[in-house]
Specification:
7-stranded mixed sheet, 608 residues
């Protein structure tokens, strides 16, 4: 007996409604910027063709014309209105003046209006800064909510630490692509701070895993060549050129090179610097280094960028921080000394610096891949000096999301890359023009090497003290001579500064730690103490820079009258050892309680 299919067809609308409701419910938890109307979303405050412009794109479920209104906050009655006839909507602000606060909103009386958002233009001179991120890639493993929160934190952290930033560049893979691209795009555009900082983006490979309209409708590319994803804009004294590196066949690479050359020919003379951005990093220590498309970009595009006079290339894709040497095409210009944080590079003609950012949200990371194609999970830079590519000056994989602040002046580009979830600097490098007059800085030293007058300092965030101090206090009766005290300080490598204050009875122990490259420094301190006096000795050792300090103090034994010591010496020694053992146990217990992650990291590192 054949069963009728009609009831199934009748059920389809109900099933569709239930599925729609379920999908909608799955996106409710995604944080979105608060707005006066829920009829408008995916609002993007974008970069314009130059510093006097800003683009606003938005999407809505309502039909009909909508508007962008913007005005100086000092003149609220003098509103400029730009009409957008149909969605997805887009409108352009023009005539923005330097050092001025503006307000704007979008919508209509019929659809409702968004809240009023404000932004402030920079001073318009040739010294300013912008922020660079890469690979937010919201939606990895379908974790839209978690990565949306991480992206919101990344934007908030970077703009809080650099509130004067002129705009934000995101270097591709805004979303995962697989899954709900609408929810992912909504989450990427959601951070409230993105309403106040103009945003520029690149098309990454994950933008190709979903319909092209999701990218095109959400983001405006000024001076775009047809629908190629290649575009440029000028901002103060920088010409920025964005390329769609998904187009990586030889003929497409030739078109990229022509686009770059034409943009520089037409606008490069007005700029102090030319910065190019494209998603696929040609030089990195990640696993994409050997991909066919990346190899072609490295071999065929980088020589053209050198010939064109590009200064800096920013990329993502490999989820591992990598800074190249100065490159002449695909060939590195290797300096005499080892690269370090704080390097100042003075390029010759046709030399380009390449910087690859890691992920801004931590959805996924790629392990270090050596020049033979082998991966090394959790290996540290100092242990892989002979394994890196010849093109690599520095790399770091600390499995922590990063962002980069780029400070621009006519004389230099200074790039400082920060961890987002910790107060540490990943790397710092400066591109400086030849014969540039730059202010002299006090000579400082990095924790990575012995102090010299010409050593650059390991950079630290302004909010964190760059000094680590270990202080011990004790009261004793001793007889000493004017003998030098030798203090050996071992500075270990990389990251982590954790300050802990533990009080045990009347003893206070303060410890500060950071990991940096192992270096041993010996300092002679001459201390004169009158013979046989009772006094409080305070021994404080300070090392410049964020450092982990393992302090070993070797001092000449005080001369003691053996007749006075007598048979009580052994008892005193055992008492002191007992107190020290108890103190160490309390400190270990406090660290275990307050910083279980640090203890686990130590256990993992030493395989305990």
């Amino acid at each position: 007996m054949r069963t009728s299919r009609r009831p199934n067809r009748l059920l389809r609308p109900a099933v569709a409604i239930m599925l729609t409701a379920a999908l909608s419910a799955s996106t409710v938890a995604v944080p979105t910027a608060r707005a006066a109307t829920d009829k408008i979303d995916r609002l993007t405050f974008g970069i314009g063709a130059d510093e006097t412009q800003a683009n606003v794109a938005w999407q809505t479920s309502r039909t009909g014309a909508q508007y962008l209104e913007y005005w100086k906050t000092s003149s609220p009655d003098d509103k400029q209105r730009v009409e957008s006839e149909r969605g997805p909507h887009e409108a352009l602000m023009t005539g923005l003046e330097p050092d001025t606060e503006y307000a704007y909103r979008v919508g209509s009386d019929r659809a409702g209006w968004t809240d009023e958002y404000t932004f402030t233009t920079d001073s318009g001179d040739d010294s300013w800064n912008f922020l660079a991120f890469a690979d937010a890639q919201i939606g990895v493993d379908t974790k839209v909510k978690e990565q949306a929160a991480a992206w919101d934190k990344a934007v908030n952290t970077a703009t809080s630490e650099h509130p004067d930033a002129s705009f934000i560049m995101h270097l591709g893979d805004q979303i995962e692509g697989w899954g709900s691209a609408t929810a992912q795009t909504k989450a990427f555009t959601a951070p409230e701070k993105l309403r106040s900082y103009r945003l520029g983006v690149l098309r990454g490979n994950h933008e190709t895993y979903t319909a092209k309209r999701h990218f095109n409708d959400a983001f405006y590319l000024p001076n775009e060549e047809n629908d190629s994803g290649n575009y440029f804009f000028t901002y103060n004294n920088v010409l920025f050129i964005g390329l769609d590196s998904n187009a990586s066949k030889s003929d497409e690479i030739a078109q990229h090179a022509e686009f770059v050359q034409n943009a520089i020919d037409e606008h490069g003379a007005e700029a102090d610097w030319v910065i190019v951005g494209f998603h696929h990093a040609p030089f990195s220590q990640g696993t994409h280094y050997t991909d066919d498309d990346v190899v072609r970009l490295r071999e065929e595009l980088t020589p053209k960028l050198s010939d064109a006079g590009v200064d800096l290339v920013l990329s993502g894709h490999d989820h591992i921080y990598t800074r190249s040497h100065l490159m002449e095409g695909a060939e590195p210009v290797i300096p005499e000394g080892a690269a370090k944080a704080g390097d100042v590079l003075i390029p010759d003609e046709n030399q380009v610096l390449y910087v690859t950012s890691t992920t801004a949200t931590g959805g996924k990371y790629y392990d270090f891949q050596d020049k033979d194609g082998n991966t090394h999970p959790r290996i540290r830079e100092e242990y892989a000096a002979d394994l890196a590519h010849d093109s690599t000056a520095r790399w770091r994989q600390d499995y922590n999301p990063d962002y980069t602040s780029v400070e621009v002046s006519p004389e230099a580009l200074k790039l400082t890359t920060y961890n987002i979830n910790t107060p540490y600097v990943v790397d710092q490098v400066t591109l400086q023009k030849k014969n540039a007059e730059v202010p002299e800085e006090e000579p400082t030293t990095t924790p990575e090497e012995t102090p010299t007058a010409t050593t650059s300092a390991e950079p630290t965030k302004p909010s964190d003290a760059g000094t680590a101090t270990v202080t011990t206090t004790a009261t004793a009766t001793e007889t000493t001579k004017s003998e030098p005290e030798v203090i050996t300080t071992t500075v270990s490598s990389e990251k982590t500064v954790t300050s802990t204050v533990t009080t045990v009875e009347d003893t206070v122990v303060t410890s500060t730690s950071t990991q940096t490259s192992p270096t041993t420094k010996e300092v002679e301190v001459t201390k004169t103490v009158p013979t046989t006096v009772e006094k409080t000795l305070t021994n404080a050792s300070t090392v410049e820079g964020s450092t982990t300090i393992t302090k070993t103090t070797t001092a000449q034994e005080p001369s003691v009258d053996t007749k006075q010591a007598g048979s009580s010496t052994a008892g005193i020694i055992f008492t002191v050892l007992g107190v020290l053992a108890a103190l160490l146990a309390v400190i270990a217990g406090a660290l275990t309680y307050l910083h279980p992650q640090l203890v686990q990291q130590v256990r993992d590192y030493f395989n305990i």
